[in-house]
Design brief:
With 60 residues, the protein is of the alpha+beta class. It is built from one helix and three strands; from the N terminus they run βαββ.
């Protein structure tokens, strides 16, 4: 799932993806879950700068 988030919004984005997975009838796999950072629209040191991130969760 690709999201645009600030540092403060990461936790909520992860929660949402788990809800979406369950609602679609998928089950999380035991492999690693991770974030792939694509870009930052602003200063990377700014906690309010929006990041484009892919949240990767393997499913069964």
């Amino acid at each position: 799932m690709q999201v645009e988030v600030t540092m403060a919004e990461y936790d909520e984005a992860w929660k949402k993806i788990y809800v979406d997975i369950n609602e679609k009838g998928y089950e999380c796999d035991s492999r690693d879950h991770y974030e792939l950072y694509l870009s930052c629209a602003g200063d990377v040191q700014d906690p309010n700068a929006p990041w484009i991130v892919e949240l990767r969760i393997p499913v069964k």
